[in-house]
Amino acid sequence: MNRLLLFALMLMLLTALPACTAQPSQDGDPVGDERSPAGFWQGLWHGFIAPFTFIASLFTKSVGVYEAYNNGGWYNFGFIFGLMVFFGGGNRAGRRAWQKRLQAGPMHEKEQQ
Fold first, then answer.
1. 3-state secondary structure of 60
2. pTM recorded for the entire structure
3. CA torsion angle 60 61 66 71 (round to 10)
4. Which residues are CB-contacts of 69 (< 8 A; sequence separation ≥ 6)?
5. What are phi and psi of 64, to 5 degrees?
């Protein structure tokens, strides 16, 4: 029962995520668009869902991975930070290296053996 519920939840999540992706303006002209440019929070969200939107963009032309109408540096920072949060930000590799160092022990202990 738990696996079925988890599968249904994941399926709902994967079908709902493309609705939150970066969308092009209706006429293709972002300057005439009345909405404000995407900022840090939208960049963070778009970065977090980027792997899912990439997959969706392979099957449809109406889904964009990156919002072209953004405010510049803050959107870019949020986008990159969102990607780092999704992929772990390199923390896994650092943790593995630290664990190897702890297992190896200090250098002087190896010399004494």
1. coil
2. 0.56
3. -140
4. 25, 30, 33, 35, 37, 38
5. -110, 145
**Measured between alpha carbons, how far is 15 from 9 in angstroms, rounded to an integer?**
10
45 and 17 Cβ atoms separated by less than 8 Å: no
Decide: 53 and 64 in contact? Cβ < 8 Å. Answer: yes
Both tokens of 22, joined, read 């970066």
Tokens of 90: 């390199």
- For 74-108, what is each residue's pLDDT tens digit? 999 999 988 888 777 666 666 777 777 777 766 65
Structure tokens at 49: 């869902």
User: How many residues make up the chain in this entry?
Assistant: 113
